[in-house]
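It is worth pausing here to work through a concrete case rather than discussing structure prediction in the abstract. The textbook approach is simple: state the sequence, then state the predicted structure, then interpret. We follow exactly that order.
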Amino acid sequence: MDPIPGGECQRSDDEAESDDGTCDRCGRELEWTLDPDGVQRRECPHCD
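Step two, the predicted structure:
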């Protein structure tokens, strides 16, 4: 079976998102974004 596009984590462990919905680097609230592949993920609007 082929891997799902965008299914692999591109972040290292020190950049992992926290469970409380805030950015580990700056503390701002993460926002939901939609990749061109149609994959939803939470990203920091300030850091990413």
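Step three, interpretation. Residues 23-47 form one domain. Residues 13-18 have pLDDT under 50 and may be disordered.
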